[in-house]
Amino acid sequence: MSDYETVKEKAAIYYLQNKRRPAYSAAATVAEIRRERKKDFEQLYAYKWELSYLHSLFPWIEEIETDIVRPVDFYREVPSSNEDHVLNWVSPEEYNRLNTKERNQLALDRYIKSKKSKWVIGRDYERYIGYLYEKKGYKVKYFGIEEGLEDLGRDLICFRGNDIHIVQCKCWSEKKEIHEKHINQLFGTTVMYYLSEINPHGNLSEFYNYIKEGRIIPVFVTTTKFSSTARKFANSLNVLLMTVPLEDYPMIKCNINRNTGERIYHLPFDQQYDKCIINPAEGEFYAKTVKEAEENGFRRAMRWHGN
């Protein structure tokens, strides 16, 4: 395409310079535009090479590169720390007119039905997989959500007894595919977790014994398919592969305060939502509706102002 445009521009310059009444000024303008276009293409190719290089270093970047950056005025004004985050989802008029139960439910309904970015969908998928683990009696640390770009490739760290699962979650389109580089990244961060958190003075030989005993298991969970090579790598490295679609689930966390015994529920946009750990054995659970949470004696979490 660029070669075609170059030929057209050269032809235009030649015509302007050699017609019966030459237009030298116009020819110079076209020549200047051609030079600027050439610089633009050179910069474009440089950016394409840099992006390709970044992909090789950070495989997860492809998850967010197609997210649309919306104009500033698209976003709702974020409430200050002493305001209710429900105000992100209901109007001031609705907030004042509705009772607490009604406006909290309306805000939750709108959150669930809202058009989400790929990042938010990915976060909801991590929460969903965490919910499934908690149902099985695991204590879940939402490491990816809490640490962001510093998650080291660990979205969830799940504990049950002496068992530890290091979980990577990918909520991708079915058109995409998980490759061996993603498996390798998960395996590498599992090794790092073992050597930094479990046995700082250990070595790889001890790690391999640990993983063969099933005491630490790297788990890759996705909505899409794995390549044949990825499956071979996973089989060799003892990485558990799971394909789990994102489904509707009860999002309200009903938590009992360990110190006071207070029964508190958290909505998915509340500040402490991802730090709240649900333990079904202690009477904690996920509620589908605000009505269900309140009928079981839980109240909405008070606004958190920091430590």
Automatic annotation (TrEMBL):
Domain Restriction endonuclease type IV Mrr per the UniProt entry, residue ranges: 122-192
Matches recorded under Pfam families: Mrr_cat
GO biological process, one term: DNA restriction-modification system
Name of the protein in question: Restriction endonuclease
The organism's place on the tree of life at top rank: Bacteria
Lineage, top ranks: Bacteria, Bacillati, Bacillota, Negativicutes, Selenomonadales
Coiled coil ranges: none
Keywords: Endonuclease, Hydrolase, Nuclease
One GO molecular-function entry: endonuclease activity
InterPro entries reported for this sequence: Restrct_endonuc-II-like, Restrct_endonuc_IV_Mrr, tRNA_endonuc-like_dom_sf
